[in-house]
From TrEMBL:
Residues 187-307 form the Mvd1 C-terminal domain. Gene3D superfamilies: 3.30.230.10, GHMP kinase, C-terminal domain. Keywords: ATP-binding, Lipid biosynthesis, Lipid metabolism, Lyase, Nucleotide-binding. GO terms for biological process: isopentenyl diphosphate biosynthetic process, mevalonate pathway. One of its GO terms (molecular function) is diphosphomevalonate decarboxylase activity. This is diphosphomevalonate decarboxylase. The lineage of its organism: Bacteria, Candidatus Kaiseribacteriota. It comes from the Bacteria. Belongs to the diphosphomevalonate decarboxylase family. It comes from Candidatus Kaiserbacteria bacterium RIFCSPHIGHO2_02_FULL_59_21.
Amino acid sequence: MSIRAASAPNIALIKYWGNRNEELRLSAADSLSMTLDQPTVEVIADHAETFAARGFEPGGAERKLAEKEADRLRKHFLLVKRYLDAIGAAEAFPAGVSLEIRSKVPRGVGLASSAAVFSAIAEAYAGFAGELSRRDVSVLARLGSGSASRSVFGGFSAMIAGEGDAIGASYAEQIAPPAHWNLRDVVIAPSATEKATGSTEGHALARTSPLFEKRLRGIPSRQRDCIDAILKKDFEKLQKVAEEDCLDMHAVMASSAPPLCYLSEETHRIIREIEELRTRERLPVLYTMDAGPTVHLICEERALPAVRVYARAQKNCAIFEAGVGSGSRRA
Ligand code: PMV
């Protein structure tokens, strides 16, 4: 039996950075994101004797997985079994699987594909396990990449950190469906170079920053403000809280030991210019950056023409655009 599933990345408005349990990817704090409608990743999973995974490029050519990627996928498979065991749903789950991961995420746009990959895999594994709740699927996704738990839901979703060390203690839930608010994400990627430290290693460094504890204390009220802004479609409030949280996460990153400086000169220039542009033209647009120099410009539809013109005028940058997506699904 072959199971197909597809998913897409999400962009965090309240950032997930730091775990309370690294192995199980139990988050140190809540986070919140908007699920994108593209680029998609498709996964085909089949029963097999052992675990094996193959990756394919956007053009369809096979891409040899790095040792580290293959290890992460294998580890995820074992954690999924452990979780299904814990909830009494492991019976129909196969001893091994063969996975095909077909990514449409263009190289060099600075969009991390792990959220799309692990939410699509979670959806396919859930197909083997039988009827699982959406929360269970979000836990399966989280075991591969914390942010992937949020891509299980369409529209706007939150990761609830929860408490304790139970494997299912952190999970995601939907805040508002895709049709709630037609925001757009115009992505400007100034650099095509691979990042030096991935987020898995980065999370483990968060506690070395003297700013981390303060960040953790501030997140509950930011998360509440962000949910409120989304429910009321209050863009100005969303802009303030999302930008504050993004800069706070980057301050934690930059003050960890060793420091992680993901933002470049280009990122800072784009931020300055966007601040000027939105003041001058009164545009509902906000900026946010994940673990890289890529700037996501999230805007309301009426700001889109001006934001597009700005993005297209950037030299040596890859540009990408997405809307609000519907989350991972069985294909
Ligand atoms: O899901 P991970 O382990 O790749 O972590 C994602 C971390 C950020 O992208 C920086 C923030 C987020 O909430 O997506």
